[in-house]
Amino acid sequence: MTHFFFQAEDGIRDFCLSRGLGDVYKRQVIYSGDADGAVPAIGSMRWLRNLRVQNDLRVKKPWQSWLKPGKQENEPQIAGFFEEYDRDVSFVTIRGASHMVPQTHPQEALQLLSYFLNQRNLNNSPCTLR
Fold first, then answer.
1. Considering the entire predicted model, what is its pTM?
2. Distance between CA 12 and CA 8 in Å, rounded?
3. Any residues with CB less than 8 A from the CB of 6 and at least 6 apart, and which?
4. Which of 16, 34, 105, 111 could form an SS bridge with 93, CB 3.0 to 4.6 Å?
């Protein structure tokens, strides 16, 4: 099975020209930094809302926070927010991240990639990068 993991900019500039979600039977994670001035998360959310209507995607897990390890072992911090849809499509934001998420927020990027590759629940995929 092929998986898709892409930053929201990979198709949101113009919804009409977008390639959309492609084969919606493959696992897909769309992510966006919530402080991205080039491709704002709100624009990604609007694009995804239109694709959800077009592809009849229903919400499986409503908008909720995902966590990262905090400085103290028992004090996790909010890493961002996510929503999951049927057909294995997810939208994830990374809190405080700008356009280059892996460069500016490596811990969160690693945790998100681990979630995707291991097909785990985002809240249950601890990151060991310190």
1. 0.76
2. 6
3. 28, 29, 30, 31
4. 34
